[in-house]
């Protein structure tokens, strides 16, 4: 694996001001993501996982701390229009709820990021062909999302996320609404894609099985990374991840 650092977060703190008090959603978080690496984030509800993805995708600005993209400090990315340029060029999103547009067929859903990027019709056709082949979804080209199963819809959503070939994929509970076999399918697909395209994936999950597909697992509690595990891709991973996750949920750290 090429170990070039794609992303580095240095002392990222995020404080939300709620009506009566402040919430420290992230406290001095330091972590990195290498090229071709999948990192899973696990943690209790409210521990700051989605907030972290929001910082990485420049949907929201940290209260303090620095973000580095390919070694370059990128303070300005948090301000529009830099934020949307940065997102378009570097980030693909996969959500738990797929977020496909009901009135568009599969092909048009997938093409959307390209249309928004003003890509030519010829290139759109080429890229759709490429992505359909990678994901084996050609047969649903003209279907509406409502005509597809959850797993099929998530495949389409993965296709939409990778159509611009972004170096970084962010996924918040991508298998949260899928059954075991479909989860396995989608995770194998993500591993395959990351290996074929050298993409880096940051994935939030509450499912220890999903976390076994990653190279590393970061455990979040109360806005901090309190533990980390490097998967060995052997049977023991699942038990170790499960026990580390239980430690957090029990508050026994
Ligand atoms: N826009 C916001 N305004 C105010 N507080 C927020 C906002 N977004 C998140 N928070 C607070 O920040 C903390 C972290 O929230 P976050 O959504 O990152 O948690 P999470 O780990 O993703 O949880 P879950 O597993 O439930 O999705 C929580 O206490 C939450 O209430
Ligand atoms: Mg969340």
UniProtKB/TrEMBL annotation:
Gene Ontology cellular-component terms listed: membrane protein complex; plasma membrane
Assigned protein family: Belongs to the ABC transporter superfamily.
Xref: PROSITE patterns: ABC_TRANSPORTER_1, ABC_TRANSPORTER_2
TM stretches of this protein: none
SMART domains with a match to the protein in the record: AAA
Pfam families the record matches: ABC_tran (PF00005)
Domain ABC transporter residues, every copy: 7-247
Keywords annotated in UniProt: ATP-binding, Nucleotide-binding, Transport
Stated name of the protein: ABC transporter ATP-binding protein
InterPro entries: AAA+_ATPase, ABC_transporter-like_ATP-bd, ABC_transporter-like_CS, ABC_transpr_LolD-like, MacB-like_ATP-bd, P-loop_NTPase
Source organism of this protein record: Halalkalibacter suaedae
GO molecular function: ATP binding; ATP hydrolysis activity; transmembrane transporter activity
């Amino acid at each position: 694996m090429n170990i070039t650092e794609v992303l580095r977060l240095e002392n990222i703190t995020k404080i939300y001001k709620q009506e009566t008090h402040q919430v420290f959603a992230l406290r001095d978080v330091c972590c990195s993501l290498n090229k071709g690496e999948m990192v899973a984030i696990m943690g209790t509800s409210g521990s700051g996982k989605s907030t972290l993805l929001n910082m990485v995708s420049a949907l929201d600005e940290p209260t303090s701390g620095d973000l580095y993209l390919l070694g370059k400090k990128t303070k300005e990315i948090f301000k529009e229009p830099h934020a949307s340029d940065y997102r378009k060029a570097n980030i693909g999103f996969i959500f738990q709820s797929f977020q496909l547009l009901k009135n568009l067929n599969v092909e048009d859903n997938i093409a959307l990021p390209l249309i928004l990027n003003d890509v030519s019709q010829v290139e759109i056709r080429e890229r759709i062909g490429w992505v359909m082949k990678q994901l084996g979804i050609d047969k649903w080209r003209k279907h509406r999302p409502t005509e597809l199963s959850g797993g099929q819809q998530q495949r389409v959503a993965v296709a939409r996320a990778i159509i611009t070939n972004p170096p970084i994929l962010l996924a918040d509970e991508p298998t949260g609404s899928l059954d075991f076999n479909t989860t396995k399918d989608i995770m194998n697909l993500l591993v395959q894609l990351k290996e074929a395209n050298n993409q880096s994936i940051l994935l939030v999950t509450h499912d220890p099985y999903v976390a076994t597909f990653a190279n590393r697992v970061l455990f979040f509690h109360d806005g901090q990374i309190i533990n980390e595990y490097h998967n060995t891709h052997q049977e023991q991973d699942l038990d170790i991840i499960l026990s580390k996750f239980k430690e957090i949920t029990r508050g026994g750290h």
